[in-house]
Design a protein that fits this description.
Length: 806
C-alpha cells in the first residue's frame, strides 16, 4: 500500500505540474498524463481529446473523454477513452476504491456513445463543429470495416474487483454481436495498473493465450540461459482467432509502426488461401514470434503462451484474417509455420527489438531501425546529458531529459534514495522530458511537414525513421547544437500550443493540429524571407519572445482557417490534417511575419482546480475554471501586509471556501467567524475587518489560494442588447450573460445537453457563472455563440433575458 500511495503522490504532482504549465483543468491534465501511460504501454497508439457527458447516472448515459482514431488503420478497431469523474488524487488520504458496478456504468456509457454514433442518432443532435461529432461521423462512415470496439476506463481510484470472478475483469473481451459483427473489449486502468505500467520494464499489457488441446512443437537443442526456441505449426483459423481477439496488440511495436494492415490483403496470400490452402505451408515463409513464457503438457505440447508478440509476419497474419472475413474461406486447412522465441520477461524489453530487427532483414523495418537501442537514439540521450540550460536568475541549471526507452525517466529516478531523487528531479524536471517517440514531431513540423506530424506519434516516428534511414551517417551528424535546437523547437511548439487555446479565433477543437501547422507555416515564412530562427536566443532565455509568439499565433489563425474550411475535400478535420493538400492550402496564405507582438503569459504557480460536479439530472461533471476573474477584490500582496478593502464586495461562496479552509485548522476566532457569517447571510450588521484580515493572513501562510476570494460582479447593462446582437462588445456580452437568472441557465443547460450542444469548455464557463465569478473573454464568446445557436434551433430567446429585462 505504501508503494501505491507514493506513486499516487508522484502522479498527482505530475498532473498538477502539467495543469499549471498548460493552464488547463486538472481533469484534462490527468487525462493527458494517463493517456501518455497507455500510449507508452502500447495499449493505444495515440489519443485525441473529445468530451461528452449526457444524463450520467441514468440508463441513457453517454460518455467520452477522448479516442484513438489511428487504431482503425492498425486493426480495424475503434477506441473510446473515458476518465473517472471523481478525481481523488488531491485527497491526502489513502487511495479510494471503485467497485465493479460503477466501472460498468462508465463502460455502458461508452458503449451507448459508440452505438449512437454508429446509427447516427448522436450526430442528429450534436454540434457539428465539435470533435465528438466528427469522431461519431468517422464511426458511422467506416462502420462496414469496424471489427472491434475497445473501451478504456481510466481512474485514480483502486479497482476492488481484481480477484473477484463475479466482477468486471481488468481486461474483458466479449464475442461479436451478430447484427454488427463487432467484438467488444473493456479495459480498466486504475491507479494500481497505471503504477504497474509506469514502472514496467518488460512488455506492455500482460496477455495469456490458452491453447485447448495444445500445439505440437519441437524445441531447438541449443541450451541458452535467457531464451528458448521452438518450431511449431498453427492452423489459419487459430491464428485468425488470435488476431480477431487481440488485434494489433499481437504485433511487436516496431512492426506495428510500419504496417498499415487494414484492407491490404496480399493478392498472392489470398489466392493461395482460396485456391490452394494445402500449399500455404510450402509457399509462405511463416512467422517469427516471441513470448515470455510457455506452458506445456506431458507430451511436450504448448497449452499456454504468455505475452505473444509477432515480430515478423504481421502482414501474413492480417492477410489470413481478412481473407477469412471477406471470402468466408475455411482457414482450418491453412498451415502456418512459426518460429517461437521464448525470452525471459526480464530480458524481453531488451532482446525483442533485436529479434525483430534481424528477422526482418529483408524489409524496411530493419533498414529504418532507429529504435531505442540504435546508435542514433543513444547519441541523442548522451547529448541531452551534456547540454545544461543557461543559469537564469533565481533558477538552477537543468537538463532536458531525453527518454529513449519507456519509463526510463521514472526508473532512473526511483532507483535513487530520497535525497538523490530530489536532486535528480531538480536537475531533470519532469516537464523537461522529451520522449523518443515525440521528438520527430518537433523536427518535422519545423522542416515543413505538419501533415506528417498529424499522422500521430507512432506514424510520424516511423516516417521520420524512414527518411533518416537513407542517411547512413545520421548519428555522426548529431551534436550538442542539434540537441539544443531540438529543445528550442519543443519550446516553440509548447508555447504556441498553450496560447492557441486563449485566442479568440480558436474554435475549441484540434489544438494540436493547429499548433503543428502554425509552427510549420512560421518556419516556412522565415525561409521564404531569407531569415533564420535565433535558436541561441531561445536557448539562453528558455522561452520565445513576444514577436515570435505573435507571428506563430497569426500562423495558427491561418492554419485554423484551412483546417476548418467548410470547402475542404475531407470532412473529418483530423484526416484532412494528414493530407498534403491541406499543407499546400496553408502555404498559399500571406506571410505571418508582420504580426503584432503578443506578450507571453507568465502564470504564477497556482493550484490546479478540482473537478466540480454540475448537477442537471446528473448530466455532466464540469471542471471548476482555473482562470482568475479580472475584478478580484483582493490583490496579490506580501503576506505581511494583506488587506481587503471591502469585505462586503466578496461573493458568499468565496467566503464559504475561506471558512471551509480555516475550520479544520482551528483558525476561526469568535470575531472572524461571526463577521463571516454576517457577510454570507447579507445582514446589515457591523463586521470586524481586523479579525478578518488576520484570519486571511494565517490562511494564506497555510496555503490558501488568494484567487479563491472573488468579488461580486458589477453588471451595468447596455440598453437594447439581446442574445442575437452581433455588434455588442465582449464586455457588453459578458455583463448580459452574467445577469441571466440561475434558474434560466438550468433550463438552458438541460435543453443544450439533450442536443449535445454543450461541450466541456462551455460547462466550465457555466460552472463559473454558478460560482458568481466573472467570465473570461473566451468563455463569453463561447456562451454567446451557444445562445445564438440555440435560438436558431428553436430555443426561446426570452429565456436569455437578464433580470432587469424580464
Amino acid at each position: 500500500m505504501e508503494e501505491i500511495e507514493e506513486y499516487r503522490h508522484d502522479l498527482w504532482n505530475e498532473v498538477l505540474e502539467l495543469a499549471r504549465d498548460r493552464d488547463i483543468y486538472d481533469q484534462e491534465a490527468f487525462f493527458e498524463t494517463a493517456c501518455e501511460i497507455l500510449r507508452d504501454s502500447e495499449a493505444i497508439t495515440a489519443y485525441h481529446p473529445a468530451y461528452c457527458r449526457y444524463l450520467m447516472g441514468t440508463n441513457k448515459a453517454l460518455a467520452i473523454d477522448g479516442y484513438d482514431q489511428d487504431a482503425f488503420e492498425l486493426d480495424e478497431s475503434i477506441v473510446v477513452i473515458v476518465c473517472d469523474d471523481k478525481l481523488t488524487m488531491n485527497d491526502q488520504n489513502a487511495p479510494q476504491t471503485i467497485q465493479a458496478a460503477e466501472c460498468k456504468k462508465y463502460f455502458n456509457a461508452m458503449q451507448r456513445f459508440f452505438v449512437a454514433a454508429w446509427n447516427g442518432s448522436y450526430q442528429a443532435q450534436a454540434e457539428e463543429s465539435s470533435e465528438t461529432y466528427e469522431f461519431a461521423q468517422f464511426i458511422k462512415q467506416n462502420r462496414a470495416g469496424i471489427r472491434r470496439a475497445r473501451f478504456y476506463f481510466i481512474t485514480d481510484r483502486e479497482y476492488t474487483g481484481r480477484s473477484d470472478p463475479e466482477a468486471i475483469q481488468i481486461d474483458q473481451y466479449k464475442k461479436e454481436k451478430e447484427r454488427q459483427h463487432i467484438s467488444w473489449e473493456y479495459h480498466t486502468w486504475d491507479i494500481r495498473r497505471l503504477m504497474e505500467a509506469s514502472h514496467a520494464t518488460g512488455l506492455a499489457e500482460h496477455m495469456s493465450i490458452e491453447l485447448p488441446g495444445g500445439i505440437a512443437t519441437v524445441k531447438a537443442p541449443d541450451d541458452m540461459e535467457d531464451m528458448d526456441t521452438y518450431l511449431l505449426f498453427v492452423t489459419g483459423d487459430v491464428l485468425s482467432g488470435w488476431y480477431k481477439k487481440y488485434g494489433s496488440k499481437l504485433m511487436e511495436a516496431n512492426v506495428r509502426s510500419f504496417l498499415s494492415m487494414r484492407g491490404k490483403v496480399n493478392k498472392g496470400i489470398r489466392t493461395t488461401i482460396c485456391n490452394q490452402p494445402d500449399r500455404f505451408v510450402a509457399y509462405n515463409n511463416g512467422l517469427t514470434a516471441t513470448a515470455t513464457h510457455v506452458e506445456t503438457d506431458g507430451q511436450g505440447r504448448i497449452i499456454r503462451l504468455d505475452d505473444l508478440q509477432i515480430v515478423n509476419g504481421g502482414q501474413t497474419t492480417a492477410s489470413i484474417f481478412y481473407t477469412g472475413q471477406k471470402d468466408k474461406t475455411d482457414l482450418s486447412r491453412v498451415i502456418v509455420p512459426v518460429k517461437l522465441v521464448v525470452v525471459h520477461e526480464d530480458m524481453a524489453r531488451e532482446l525483442v527489438p533485436y529479434i525483430s530487427r534481424y528477422t526482418n532483414s529483408q524489409n524496411k523495418v530493419a533498414e529504418a531501425d532507429f529504435s531505442s537501442n540504435s546508435e542514433y537514439q543513444i547519441k541523442l540521450e548522451q547529448l541531452s546529458k551534456q547540454a545544461l540550460t543557461p543559469p537564469l536568475p533565481g533558477t538552477i541549471q537543468t537538463h532536458w531529459y531525453y527518454e529513449r526507452a519507456r519509463s526510463q525517466y521514472d526508473s532512473e529516478k526511483n532507483r535513487r534514495d530520497a535525497a538523490s531523487r530530489k536532486a535528480f528531479e531538480k536537475t531533470n524536471p519532469s516537464k523537461q522530458r522529451i520522449k523518443m517517440v515525440d521528438a520527430p514531431k518537433y523536427l518535422v513540423c519545423w522542416d515543413g511537414q505538419p501533415q506528417v506530424a498529424s499522422l500521430g506519434a507512432q506514424k510520424c516516428f516511423a516516417k521520420f525513421v524512414n527518411q533518416q534511414s537513407a542517411n547512413k551517417s545520421a548519428a555522426d551528424e548529431l551534436n550538442v547544437d542539434f540537441y539544443k535546437q531540438l529543445v528550442c523547437k519543443r519550446i516553440i511548439f509548447d508555447t504556441v500550443y498553450k496560447h492557441i487555446k486563449k485566442a479568440e479565433w480558436f474554435l475549441g477543437a484540434y489544438q494540436a493540429n493547429v499548433a503543428e501547422y502554425a509552427v510549420a507555416k512560421y518556419s516556412l515564412d522565415l525561409r521564404r524571407a531569407g531569415l533564420s530562427c535565433d535558436f541561441d536566443a531561445i536557448w539562453r532565455r528558455q522561452s520565445i519572445d513576444a514577436h515570435m509568439l505573435g507571428c506563430l499565433l497569426k500562423a495558427g489563425e491561418q492554419a485554423s482557417e484551412v483546417l476548418n474550411d467548410p470547402r475542404r475535400p475531407v470532412q473529418n478535420v483530423s484526416e484532412w490534417a494528414k493530407k498534403d493538400q491541406c499543407w499546400n492550402n496553408l502555404k498559399g496564405k500571406m506571410t505571418c511575419l508582420d504580426a503584432a507582438d503578443v506578450e507571453i503569459v507568465m502564470e504564477k504557480p497556482k493550484h490546479a482546480a478540482t473537478k466540480r460536479v454540475v448537477k442537471e439530472d446528473e448530466v455532466s461533471a464540469a471542471p471548476e475554471p482555473r482562470h482568475k476573474a479580472s475584478n478580484e477584490a483582493v490583490e496579490e500582496l506580501p503576506t505581511d501586509n494583506v488587506l481587503v478593502s471591502d469585505w462586503h464586495a466578496l461573493t458568499p461562496k468565496s467566503l464559504e471556501r475561506l471558512i471551509a479552509f480555516a475550520t479544520p485548522k482551528h483558525y476561526l476566532s469568535p470575531k472572524s467567524k461571526s463577521s463571516l457569517e454576517t457577510l454570507i447571510s447579507g445582514d446589515d450588521l457591523p463586521i470586524n475587518e481586523n479579525a478578518l484580515n488576520n484570519l486571511l493572513k494565517r490562511c494564506l501562510d497555510a496555503g490558501f489560494p488568494l484567487r479563491e476570494l472573488q468579488a461580486k460582479p458589477q453588471v451595468p447593462l447596455r440598453p437594447g442588447i439581446d442574445i442575437t446582437s452581433e455588434d455588442a462588445s465582449v464586455d457588453d456580452r459578458r455583463d448580459f450573460l452574467m445577469s441571466i437568472p440561475e434558474q434560466n441557465w438550468q433550463t438552458i443547460i438541460q435543453w443544450g445537453q439533450k442536443r449535445y450542444m454543450i461541450n466541456q469548455e462551455m460547462m466550465a464557463a457555466l460552472a463559473r457563472l454558478s460560482e458568481g465569478l466573472q467570465l473570461t473573454d473566451r468563455q463569453t464568446v463561447l456562451l454567446w455563440r451557444l445562445g445564438n445557436d440555440m435560438v436558431k434551433r428553436g430555443f426561446p430567446a426570452s429565456l436569455f433575458k437578464p433580470r432587469d429585462q424580464r
